[in-house]
């Protein structure tokens, strides 16, 4: 568990209230047959609460057996809270990591 209930309380709306429909009813393979994948989130000066809601939504709406990793690419954000505070928050998700660009890449 990622402790997502604490994150939900701190960062707003519970993403489970927007549960996605069961894709297996549309002819998609069962979750156990899905290939491993990496999710990449590119951001610049994003609100930390929006980023964390995105991570929680991924955890609650994605078959995590098929997720190899979540990579957050920070395109040289200038907001202080996106430094050590973001590192601390993302550490709650052991499969997530942050890559920080040393210059704006666009």
Explain what this protein looks like in three dimensions.
This protein has 106 residues and is α/β, with parallel strands linked by helices. The radius of gyration is 15 Å and the shape is elongated. The model is unreliable at 1-5 (pLDDT under 50). It has three helices and three strands. A three-stranded parallel sheet has the order 1-2-3, with no helix packed on it.
Q: What proportion of the residues is helical, as a percent range?
A: 25-40%
**Average of per-residue pLDDT values:** 82
- Give the SSE order as H and E letters: HEHEHE
Q: In DSSP terms, counting alpha (H) and pi (I) runs of 4 or more, how many helices? A: 3
The rough form would be described as elongated
Query: Whole-Å distance between the termini?
Result: 34 Å
Q: Give the spatial strand order of the biggest sheet.
A: 1-2-3
Total beta strands: 3
Question: Which structural class is indicated by helix and strand composition?
Answer: alpha/beta
Low-confidence stretches: 1-5
Characterize the largest beta sheet: strand count, sense, and whether it forms a barrel: 3 strands, parallel
Write down the Rg.
15 Å
Instruction: Give the amount of beta strand, in percent.
Output: 15-25%
